[in-house]
Amino acid sequence: MIHDWGMMNWGWGGMIFQLLFWLVLIGAIIWVIKYITGQSRS
Asked: What is the largest distance, in Å, between two alpha-carbon atoms of the chain?
């Protein structure tokens, strides 16, 4: 069965891509939270 589409099959390139993906995702969530809290404060 081929349902292991993770970092295992991608190698180092996949690990770096996934790390960047998570960094961008977390950064976007933090930005949204800061934006919402900033709007509600004023």
From this structure: 54
